[in-house]
Amino acid sequence: MDIQALRKAHPEHWMRAAAIRTLTLDAVAAANSGHSGMPMGMADVATVLFQNHLRFDPKAPHWADRDRFILSAGHGSMLLYALLHLTGYKQATLQQLKDFRQLGARTAGHPEYGHMEGIETTTGPLGQGIANSVGFAIAEEILRARHGKNVINHHTYVIAGDGCLMEGVSQEAIGLAGMQQLGHLICFFDNNNITIDGTVDMADITNQSARFVASGWHVIDIDGHDPVAIDDAIKAAKADPRPSMINCKTHIALGHAAQDTSKGHGALTDADQLKAAKEAYGWSGGPFEIPADVKSQWEAMGTRGAAAHAEWQARFDKLSKSKQDEFNRAFALDAPKKLSAAIKSFKKDASEAGKKVATRSSSEAVLGVINPIMQETVGGSADLTGSNNTKSPDQGVFNPDNRAGRYIHYGVREHGMAAAMNGMVLHGGIRPYGGTFMCFTDYARGAMRLSALMEIPTVYVMTHDSIGLGEDGPTHQPVEHLAMLRATPNTHVFRPADSVEVAEAWELALTEKKTPSVLCLSRQGLPLVRTDHKTKNMSAQGAYVLADAENGKRQAILMATGSEVSVAMAARDILEAEGIGTRVVSMPCWELFEAQEENIRKRVLPGGPVRVAIEAGVRTGWDKWLMGERGREQKSGFIGMPGFGASAPAPELFEHFGITAEATAQKVRDLIA
Amino acid sequence: MDIQALRKAHPEHWMRAAAIRTLTLDAVAAANSGHSGMPMGMADVATVLFQNHLRFDPKAPHWADRDRFILSAGHGSMLLYALLHLTGYKQATLQQLKDFRQLGARTAGHPEYGHMEGIETTTGPLGQGIANSVGFAIAEEILRARHGKNVINHHTYVIAGDGCLMEGVSQEAIGLAGMQQLGHLICFFDNNNITIDGTVDMADITNQSARFVASGWHVIDIDGHDPVAIDDAIKAAKADPRPSMINCKTHIALGHAAQDTSKGHGALTDADQLKAAKEAYGWSGGPFEIPADVKSQWEAMGTRGAAAHAEWQARFDKLSKSKQDEFNRAFALDAPKKLSAAIKSFKKDASEAGKKVATRSSSEAVLGVINPIMQETVGGSADLTGSNNTKSPDQGVFNPDNRAGRYIHYGVREHGMAAAMNGMVLHGGIRPYGGTFMCFTDYARGAMRLSALMEIPTVYVMTHDSIGLGEDGPTHQPVEHLAMLRATPNTHVFRPADSVEVAEAWELALTEKKTPSVLCLSRQGLPLVRTDHKTKNMSAQGAYVLADAENGKRQAILMATGSEVSVAMAARDILEAEGIGTRVVSMPCWELFEAQEENIRKRVLPGGPVRVAIEAGVRTGWDKWLMGERGREQKSGFIGMPGFGASAPAPELFEHFGITAEATAQKVRDLIA
C-alpha cells in the first residue's frame, strides 16, 4: 500500500482520517491495551461518512431523526470514540480518550451503551451490531410509515468486520434485512482479510458480496481507502431500494509496521513504530495533539447537522399536540395512561371467568388488550406464531408491502430476532416483544445478555416452558433455562401461574425502562389460581401469599412458579385435609421479590414452617429461598427435575418425574415427621 | 403436483417411498402428535439414497466405516425411524413405531442419540445436524489421512430444511465446510418453501444455492421427487471434490390434502384425509402394514451392506495388532495407558517449579504433554488460538493441504465449532476440544447443551473466565456463566486453581466417556496453590481440603474456585495470623463433589465453622454449599460479583468489586463476631 500516494491524492481528507489513526495509536499506547488496526483501516470510510453523509447533531445526541452509526466490530472502539471526540460530543472529552479502558472512564474497551452519548448500542461480541442494525432499520421503517417522512426519515449505517460476518447471527440479520428490503440500511464490510489467527482464508473463503446478493442485498465493491469511491458508493447505496452492503477492501493498521498482519489487529504500542507511522502520515505534534486546521474541519462536520436538526424540529413542532405527545411518550418509554385500567379490567374478567387456560393463550388475550392501546409495541416470533401466541388481530404484518404492520415474521432466527429487538428499543419509539420456545433461549442468549447489560426493556415471550410441552421431548424441554435466566444480572424472569399473573407480568414488562423481561409461559392449560380478584399487581412484589394455612397450625410453606403453582394448591388441599396448615407462595418473579425490603420477604416466607419448592426445572437457585433469610435453619425440600426431560404426553411426564400434588404432600409429611 | 404421474413413472420406487409416507402418517396418527409433512416430502430422496448409495449394515450399526446419515430437520424423525425399521435395525421394531412419542419408547419426538441404533446424533434444535455433519466429515478426513482409505473412506449425508438454513449456525457450518473442502459431505436441502408461519418468503428470500456457492460448495438443483434426478445428483456430488449441496425442490406432505401448506408441517391426523392420501398413493392395507414385496425390497437394502462390511473387516484385520488396538482404543474413548503417568509427572514438575502461571498457559503446557500421546485429540479455537492457548506444537493445522493436521482454525464461529466437535465425537475415533472466551459460551450454548443431553465427552476450553480479563470489559467478562454451566445437567464444569489442578482437570476430561467438560481458565497469572505435590487426582473428588486450620480452633471454612483459591489462601494467612483457624477448600468441580458419598462431603465441609465462598461470578448456586448438608444452619457469606463487570486493568477490578483477601477476612470476622 503506497500511503504516500494516498496522501497526495487527497491531502485534506488524508489528514482528517489521520486524526482518527493517530488518536487510536495514542489511546491504545496510553492504555497499553486495545485494538489499533481496525480504526486505522476504516478511518477513510468513517471520515467520508461523517463528512458528507451522516446526519447528526452532537449537541442533540438523542434527536429522534438522526442517522444511526453502529460499530459492529466493537473492538475497534477507538474509531467511535475518536469520531465522537472530533465532532464535538461533549462527553467525548480528550481526557476520556486518555483514560481509554480505565476504571470509571466512558471509553470502555468495547463501546458500552449508556456510557457516552453517541454510542448507539453495545458491541464487542461479534455480529451483534449488524444484527442490531436490522432492528434499527425496521424501527425507522415502521415509524416513517406511521409519522411520515417529515418526522422520521434517516439511515442506519453499520461497520462489520470479517468476524461479524463469520458469526452465524450475521446470516440471520442479512436474511431478515434482505427479505424486508430495508433500503435505509447500509453496511460497510471492513474487508481487511485479517483475523486474530491469521488471514481470513485460514477459516473462510466465502465471497461475502455474493453471499449478500444471494439474500437480496445491493452490493458495491470498493477500495476502502479511496474517498471518492467511498462517497460514490454511499450515494449509490442511498439511492437503491434494497439494503446495501459496501464491500470495502481495506488494510488493517494502515501505514503501521504491522499493516496487513494479525499483529495489527491488536494493541500497537511500540513507541518507535508508532513514531514511524505518524511520520508516514505526515503527522507532527505530540500524543493526542490534533493540528488546528484538522480539528476545525472535524468540528465543522459536528456543527453541520444543527441546521437539519432545526428544520426537523420546525416540522415536528407543526404536528398536533397529541401527535407530539404520543411520539414523545413512546420515545420516553412511558406507558399510556390507559394501560393500568385495561390490565385491571382484564384481570377482573379472567378471575371471574375462572377458565383453565394455557398461559401462552392468556398472553395472547392480554396482547389483544394491550396492542390496540400501545401503538409502540411490535410483536413477532421466530416462526412459531401460532405456538407462541404472539400475534394480536389488530397488528398487521410488517413487510415491504405494509410498513405500518406491527408484527414481524422473523423466520427461524432466534438470535437475529433478539438482536433486532434490541436494535428497535435502542432506536426508540418502539417496544418490541418476540417469541420462541423457551429452550431456544439457548440460541438467543448472546443478544439476551446484551439486553440486560445495556439496561433496555426488550421483552422475550418464551413459551413451552417445561416438560409440560410433552412429546417434543428433551431437546425442546427447558430444565436449566429458568436458572440460567435468573443467574443473569438485570433480567426479570416472570413465570406466571395463570391468566391474572400473565396480565400482571405484561404490565410490569411494558412499564419497565431499564430491565429486559422474560415471560415463561406454558403450552398446557393451567387452572386459575387467582380466584380472589385483587386490583393490586401482586406480581410486582415478586412473590406473595396465594393461600394461607386454614385448617391447623401453619406447618408448611409451599413455594412454586407457573404451572406448578396449581400443583402446590392441590398439595395444600391434601395437607389441609390432614390438618397440616399449609401456605402457598406464588413466586412469579424472584428478582422483584429480592428487591423488596427484608420485612416484606419475611412476612411472605417466615421462619419456622418446613419449606418445599415446586418447579419443573432444576433446583439451581432455589436453595436461596429454601434456606431462609440470613441462613436460618430451615427444613426443606425440592420437587422438580433431576436432569433432562423425556418425550411423552405431558401428564405422564409430570407423573414420571414425580412433580405432583401427592409427591409434594408426601415431601411435607416426611419433613415434619 | 400430479402424484399419479409420479407413481406411473417409477412404480416400484414409488411404493418404496410410499412405505415411508404411510408409516409416518400412521405413527403420527397413533401418537396424535408429531410432524408428518417433512418425511412425506423427503421420502423419495431418502429412498434413493438408501437404495443406491448409503453404505450401512443394520447388523453392525457401529461399523466405523459406515456412511453417516444425519437428519438435521429432526422434527421429521419419523423419516429416520421408518428408514431404520424398513431396513432392519433390530431396535427399530414395529412396536417402536406404534409407540412413537410415548414414554420410554426409543422413538422420541425428535431423534435422540443413544435411544436407538442408527440415530447418529440428536437433532431437533434446528441447524444442529448440519453443523454436526461438518464435524463428522472432518473426522472422516482426519482418520482417512491417518489410517488410509482402506480403513476409513465414507460419506456423510445430511438433510437440512429451510429452518436449518435460516439458523445462523448453518452459515458457520457452511463456511467451515466450504473452506475445508469437505468433499465427502453431501447436504440435501429439503426445499419445500414452507415453514410453520407460512411460505418461506414471508421471512426469507435467500437463494440458498447461490449462498452455498458463495462459500465454495458444489451445488445441484433438482426435483426432489424424481428418483433418476436424485440418483444422478448423488453420483455427481460424490464425484466432486467440494462439499455438495443438492437443492431438492419438494412438496411438503406430498399427496395429502395439506400438501404445500403450513398445516402439512405438523401432525396430520384426520382419518379421512389419511385414507385419501393412502388411496392416492395406491396403498392398501391397515395401519402400519407394508406389502410383502415392498418390505422385501427395503430389507434387501438393509442386507446389501453386509458384503461391503465384510470386505472392510478383512482389510481391517490385515492391519497390525497395534494399529488395530490403537484404532479400537480411540473409538472406544479409552485413554492410553501412558496418560496417567504423564499427568502425574507434569503435576510433580509444576508443583516443584512453583511458578505463577495463567491457567490458560498451564493448559497449553498440559496439552503439550497430552497431544503427543493421544493421537485422537483434535484441538481448535474460534479464532483465539493465541489467547485460548489451545495449540500444541506437534499438532499441525488441519486444512485441505494437510488432512493429518490435528488443529482446526474454526474461524469466528463458536456455535459452529461446538456443533462440529459434537459431530467429531459422535463419528468416533476423535476426542475434540475447542476454545473461545468463556463469555462466548453464550454463542455456543445450543450445541453445548446437546453435548450434555447426548452424553458425549466434548471438551470446551473457556479462557478469560472472569473480570480477571480486565480491559475488554463487561461484554467479555463472564459473571453468570459458571452458574449457567453448573445448572446444565450432565456437564462437568472445571475451574482449576493452578497448574496442578489444570492437569487434573484435563485428565478427568479426557478419561470421561459420557459427560462433556468445560475447563474455565484464567487470562491472568495465578500462583501455585498445590505446593504439596500429591500423586492422587484431588480434583476427581470435586472439592478437597487445600489447607486446614493450624493456628487456633477451626472457625472458618473458605470455599473457592480457580483464581479465587489463591485469594482464599491469602485470606487464610491473615486470619490464621489473628488466631482464627481457617480451612480452605478448593472446589474445582461441583458436579464431581456432589457425586461423592455424604460422609466425604461432610469431611470436607463439616458443620460448625462459618463458611465464606469466594468466586468472581454471581452467587447463584453457591447457597447449596453455604447452607450445609441437610439444610443445617450455617452462618455464611459470599464474596463475588454483584452484577456485570467493568472495563479496567484486572487488579483494579478485583479491588473495585471487593474480591480480595482482606474483604474475605473481614467477612469472616463479621460472621464470627
TrEMBL record, chains A, B:
Superkingdom of this protein's organism: Bacteria
Lineage: Bacteria, Pseudomonadati, Pseudomonadota, Alphaproteobacteria, Rhodobacterales
Alphabetized GO MF terms: transketolase activity
EC class name: transferase
Similarity annotation: Belongs to the transketolase family.
Polar residues bias: start-end ranges: 384-393
Subunit structure, as described in the record: Homodimer.
Pfam families in the record: Transket_pyr (PF02779), Transketolase_C_1 (PF22613), Transketolase_N (PF00456)
InterPro entries given in the database record: THDP-binding, Transketo_C/PFOR_II, Transketolase-like_C_2, Transketolase-like_Pyr-bd, Transketolase_bac-like, Transketolase_BS, Transketolase_fam, Transketolase_N
Region (Disordered) residue spans: 380-400
Keywords: Calcium, Magnesium, Metal-binding, Thiamine pyrophosphate, Transferase
Cofactor list: Mg(2+); thiamine diphosphate
Organism of derivation: Octadecabacter dasysiphoniae
UniProt protein name: Transketolase
Residue stretches making up the Transketolase-like pyrimidine-binding domain: 357-528
Catalyzed reactions per annotation: D-sedoheptulose 7-phosphate + D-glyceraldehyde 3-phosphate = aldehydo-D-ribose 5-phosphate + D-xylulose 5-phosphate
EC numbers for this chain: 2.2.1.1
